[in-house]
Amino acid sequence: MLTDKEITMVEAIYLAIDSGDMPVSVCYQLIDKVRQKNNEQYAYLIWLLNRWRYELRSHRTHLPKRINRILSLNDSINGFST
Fold it and tell me: Are 13 and 46 in contact, with CB atoms under 8 Å apart?
């Protein structure tokens, strides 16, 4: 699972790429650096670029809502979710 810091980094890279202000070659280099560093960050970035950008966002700077996905063992045993 990605930390808030890792999510923030991926979303910053996504916004930089999506702005269109960088050359395409720099965008590909950034994507490759993320791929080399962390597969989960890479998967999230690719999802943002391929799916969020075209189908799900409501405006240009809209990012997915962050949900606290950490459940205590007690909650999962009792069937509760946050």
Answer: no
> How far from chain centre, in Å, is Cα 2?
9
Residue 73: phi, psi to the nearest 5? -60, -40
Instruction: Indicate if the alpha-carbon torsion angle 39, 50, 27, 61 is positive or negative.
Output: negative
Rounded (10°) angle between helices 39-47 and 4-19: 40
- Neighbour count for residue 6 (Cβ, 10 Å): 16
**Tens of pLDDT along 36-63?**
999 999 998 988 888 766 555 555 666 6
Task: Give yes or no for a contact between 17 and 49, defined as CB atoms under 8 angstroms apart.
Answer: yes
Q: 28: buried, middle or exposed (CB in 10 Å: 19+, 13-18, 0-12)?
A: exposed
58 DSSP 8-state letter = S
Helix%, strand%, coil% for the chain, nearest 5: 65, 0, 35
